[in-house]
Amino acid sequence: MWLPFKLFKALIGLAFACALGVTFLVLACALPQYNNWWPMFVLFFYFLSPLPTIVAKRLSNSYDSSSSACIELCIFLTTGIVVSSIGLPVVLAHVEVIQWGACALVISGNTVVFLTILGYFKVFGNEDIEYSMW
Fold first, then answer.
1. Residue 78 CB-half CA count within 13 A
2. Could you tell me where the DSSP H helices lie in the chain?
3. N or C: which end of the chain has fewer CB within 10 A?
């Protein structure tokens, strides 16, 4: 009885955190002093970051077993995607395409969104949860 309620609360919290992170991204683009939509390219990284983990989870038996090449490649690719999403606004600010304030907002939004994605995999990544009881 209580397990679905706790999962429901976690889902609401994760949705709020993700909305907050995307709000930071939109503010970095839409505020009048910045007025530049180049930081929106970070959205590609948001969609790409969970893909290696989903593929590795599908191909491997479990995360708890000894380290496998598939899981190690998943971690490497995910780390590369996250670092690239932080590096893109820094490079754009360095070449003066965007301002440093917009860069700070994008990096804050990245931090919130990627922590939300990590939280999603921590909460809903268990295989012992049966979704049929919802």
1. 18
2. 2-30, 42-48, 51-59, 69-94, 100-124
3. N
pLDDT at 126: 63
Residue pair 59/74 in contact by the 8 Å Cβ criterion: no
Predicted confidence (pLDDT) per residue in 120-133, tens digit: 888 887 655 444 44
SS3 state at 107: helix
The conformation of residue 132, written as its DSSP 8-state character, comes to G
72 pLDDT band (50/70/90 cuts)? confident
- For 33, which DSSP code? T
User: For the whole model, what pTM was predicted?
Assistant: 0.82
Question: What is the distance between the alpha carbons of residues 40 and 29, in angstroms, rounded to a whole number?
Answer: 7
In order of 5, 68, 107, the CA distances from 57 in angstroms are: 26, 11, 28
Q: What is the C-alpha separation between 9 and 7, in angstroms, rounded? A: 5
